[in-house]
């Protein structure tokens, strides 16, 4: 997060589920949400754990059916975190209550900026975001795309919000689905690799606890080394791979499995499904 990030205006998070909740935690940790944050959830059970945090107002819709409208009425930035199928109805509900300078930000996968702009008042500033689950620990990668009415100032404001939970990449909306196949789905790919690495360690006689320590800490250490280095991953791999050594033999097996093709096909499959979801399939 940049050292000179400005204080943020009032924010509403409509549907503060896992991702909205992660963003809320980042905002609270940052201390930048000086205008306050209002969050809504359908049930009291989901709303209550979010209450009591500094500057946070948590609304349960089962207690306050007009809670969404109340939340957005005083907010400059409105994050939409409900399920994609619920977005059109929600936008129609909150439209009469949005302020004239409201910036509406989508967290909903597959819902286009055009859908938002077709329902919201003409000229409403809309941005589409694609954060990933490491937002929970402040290490997200968030893709951000600006709508037709979003100004550079609006984009900078929303960028500052998402920088409270990690790194932001601004892309045209035409690339947001492709981005989702890399950073959005990416944590699952990493977890799968760790899962298989752990199984291999157990198969070589290590206890589950020791196998997990080796697998997890190896990935954590390698990524930390990459983050601290000014060389690319391929060079770091070569530095570990001594000629005619054990690592070289192992890497050759992995390369013979055509991992390059596997990752291309996997991300292509994810992109195809993203486009199906955008089309309502």
TrEMBL record:
Coiled-coil stretches noted in the UniProt entry, renumbered to this chain: none
First-tier enzyme category under EC: oxidoreductase
Enzyme Commission number(s): 1.5.1.2
Leader sequence residues: none
Top-level lineage group: Bacteria
Major site of localization recorded for this protein: cytoplasm
Pyrroline-5-carboxylate reductase dimerisation domain sequence ranges: 173-277
Reaction catalysis annotation: L-proline + NADP(+) = (S)-1-pyrroline-5-carboxylate + NADPH + 2 H(+); L-proline + NAD(+) = (S)-1-pyrroline-5-carboxylate + NADH + 2 H(+)
PROSITE patterns to which the protein is assigned, alphabetical: P5CR
Keyword Transcription: no
NADP as UniProt keyword: yes
Keywords from the UniProt entry: Amino-acid biosynthesis, Cytoplasm, NADP, Oxidoreductase, Proline biosynthesis
Pathway(s) annotated for this protein in UniProt: Amino-acid biosynthesis; L-proline biosynthesis; L-proline from L-glutamate 5-semialdehyde: step 1/1
Residue stretches making up the Pyrroline-5-carboxylate reductase catalytic N-terminal domain: 11-110
Compartment(s) where it occurs, according to its Swiss-Prot or TrEMBL record: Cytoplasm
Purpose: Catalyzes the reduction of 1-pyrroline-5-carboxylate (PCA) to L-proline.
Family in the record: Belongs to the pyrroline-5-carboxylate reductase family.
Protein name: Pyrroline-5-carboxylate reductase
Record organism: Microbacterium lacus
Species classification: Bacteria, Bacillati, Actinomycetota, Actinomycetes, Micrococcales
């Amino acid at each position: 997060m940049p050292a000179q990030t400005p204080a943020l205006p009032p924010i509403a998070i409509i549907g503060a589920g896992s991702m909205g909740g992660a963003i809320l935690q980042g905002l609270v940790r940052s201390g930048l949400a000086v205008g306050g944050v209002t969050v809504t959830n359908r049930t009291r059970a989901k709303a209550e754990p979010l209450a009591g945090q500094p500057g946070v107002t948590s609304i349960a819709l089962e207690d306050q059916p007009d809670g969404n409208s109340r939340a957005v009425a005083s907010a400059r930035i409105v994050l939409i975190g409900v399920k994609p199928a619920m977005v059109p109805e929600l936008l129609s509900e909150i439209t009469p209550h949005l302020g004239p300078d409201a910036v509406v930000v989508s967290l909903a996968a597959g819902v286009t900026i055009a859908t938002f702009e077709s329902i919201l008042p003409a000229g409403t500033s809309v941005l589409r975001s694609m954060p990933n689950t490491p937002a929970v620990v402040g290490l997200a990668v968030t893709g951000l795309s600006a709508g037709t009415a979003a100004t550079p100032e609006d984009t900078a404001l929303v960028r500052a919000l998402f920088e409270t939970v990690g790194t932001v990449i601004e892309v045209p909306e035409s690339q947001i689905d492709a981005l989702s196949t890399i950073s959005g789905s990416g944590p699952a790919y990493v977890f799968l690799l760790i899962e298989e690495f752990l199984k291999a360690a157990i198969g070589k006689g290590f206890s589950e606890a020791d196998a997990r320590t080796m697998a997890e800490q190896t990935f954590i250490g390698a990524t930390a080394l990459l983050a601290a280095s000014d060389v690319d991953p391929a060079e770091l791999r070569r530095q570990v791979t001594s000629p005619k050594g054990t690592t070289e033999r192992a890497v050759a097996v992995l390369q013979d499995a055509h991992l390059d093709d596997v990752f291309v096909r996997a991300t292509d499959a994810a992109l195809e499904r993203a486009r199906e979801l955008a089309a309502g399939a």
